[in-house]
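Q: Here's a chain of 278 amino acids. Please give me its 3D structure as tokens.
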Amino acid sequence: MANRTAGLTYIEKNTPLHKMTGGAKLLMLLFMSLAAMITFDTRLLVVLVVVAISLFVVAKMPIKEMKMIFSILAFIMAVNLVVSYLFSPEEGVAIYGSRTELFHIIGRYYITREQLFYQLNVTIKYFAILPLAMVFFVTTDSSEFAASLNAIGVNYKIAYSVSLALRYIPSVLREYHDISQAQQARGIDISKNVKLSKRIIGIATIMFPLIITSIDKIDRIAGAMELRSFGKHKKRTWYKARPFKKLDYAAVAVSLLFIVAAVLLNFVNGGRFFNPFS
């Protein structure tokens, strides 16, 4: 079983999502993410959010162990919303063709219903995609996923590279934690008790040895693969290869329907945006 402290790592459990092949889950993630990206119809986005959160629950995600990841994602979302408003405070007005002013902040910055609705849709998009990505990482064994990728036509060199990347993420997180503990034992404080500037400097002192050890590990892995003649043949066999089953086909078909719905709604709405102000 994977180390739970690593965050987005595979955790073996007996759930329907764990029983699915990695290739099916990847297609489901891609199709549903694509549907969320090509539409701004709030109704479809809400349905996607409900499905994503339902899958999150079904997968029995380790929420307590993912607090740091949630914090990082929340910070990124907040920064994106603030920056998008600062650079284009009238984007919603331009999109929906109306302007309902709620109050004035300063200068050209007004809060309008249209802008709030636009940024609400942007936020919903995050909640439609991010839970799916988390579910994918936590329910997908890297070796089995590489085999599934190769089965659906992806070159086995690329599939194996993806597998190595998935394996390497928890390793990097563990090394970061170990180096952080060692640096703090030497008196380098990166907690909330110190100023932000000192925390950034402290994190920089952790990143340098982390990068050095990562490069060394990559070099050793590349050398080992070269010694074993990796890439010599056009095809290879997989120890954890699994064929698609009914559950896999059903999940892919349902996720594909979301793309169809997104495209149809574009025609119904006369564009990507659902306009409740018209």
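Q: Can you summarize the key feature?
A: The longest strand covers residues 101-106.
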